[in-house]
Design brief:
445 residues, alpha/beta, two-stranded antiparallel ribbon, 11% strand
Amino acid sequence: MQHHTFHYKTRDDLQRELEALGVSLPLSDNLQVLREPLQIEGRTLANRLAVQPMEGCDATPDGAPGELTYRRYRRFAQGGAGMIWMEAVAVSQESRANPRQLFLHNDNVDDFARLVEDIKKTGRQANGFEPMVIVQATHSGRYSKPEGTPRPLIAYQNPIFEGDKPLDPSCILPDDALMRLEEQFGQMARLAEQAGFDGIDIKCCHRYLLNEFLSAYRRPGLYGGSFENRTRLLRNSVASAQAEVSSRCFVTCRLNIYDGFPYPYGYGVGTDGSVQPQLEEPIDLVGILHKQMGMNLINMTLGNPYVNPHVNRPYDRGPYEPQEHPLEGVARMFSCIGRVSAPYPDLTVVSSGHSYLRHLSPLAAAGVVESKIASVAGFGREALAYPDFANDILHTGGLDAKKCCVSCGKCSQLMRMNQVAGCAVRDAFYLDLFRKASAKKEEAK
């Protein structure tokens, strides 16, 4: 099918396209719901908008925040979102996605403490409140490149990723290594509280290691096969983190509830070989995390940004033309989140997938909150392009189309070109960097 780009100027334009497609989005003009405070783990969230984790690849060699890290998070803090869900921070050297990925450890915990205090101070001065700051603890798994060259660590061989060239069997992490990893998540949780973070996210999304285990249907041993075994690494890592923190720091999760890959390589699908969402297992897993393990905040997402990016980041321009309209992808995101969150009305949920809607995204954010699909609306790419998006939504009643993310993927391209990452359309610093890196790439051909 012909790929459609975003061209909607008004809500009516968008609504006509949705009706032609036969899909629906939760749209509301009641932006007041986004201004309402929310109680989370004994803290008050100032509003219902969140900055989602987007990596900048700008840490120092030892994993501490660099100058550009401070620049990015000061802009987010000034921007007025009640929640800043910090980007992926590695739990170990071997689990870093690149040599400039943030990595929290004993020797740089004070550096992270200074960043957290800077974020909160900036928020107080700019907006009169401290944003809630959550750190995302990750193991990059098959995307591990701690020295800049691939050092994949995987749950199982997957032809969707490896094709006809399986990885060396030594890349498959044995059970005893996973038990040690569970302890590392606990150790990082202790350091996260020491650094002053409000919460720590045990990252289980976008095909990084913990997410990959959710689909380890054919892996033998304690961490594969049954639902209990496939969720063991996540459950044990959460429990390990919970055991290391006090009430000053809560444990949460950014969770893939649907991968978009067929069985036996995808989670949140049936066994018939299709990629239609089958959400019984995700619903059960959220119930375990919330009802049994006491997790009161979960950030839900879908897909994989490297193989099927249209599932979680519908785009105007990307690496391939998807066989669906981008608005169908946005609708799937909200539908899946709503179906998984519905059985747990007392669970605080952060939604994803708003950025593609550009200046019309406040309508979806308000609709998501008003219809109780989620309690908080999260913005990822939009925050890189438009760091003050929250203040504009909350105080001017909308977004400026000329400042919005255009879903071009240049932020991800910078990362793939081994550069620091940011918006190469709205931010002059990254635009200059993108042009130089692109020219160098052309010269090398």
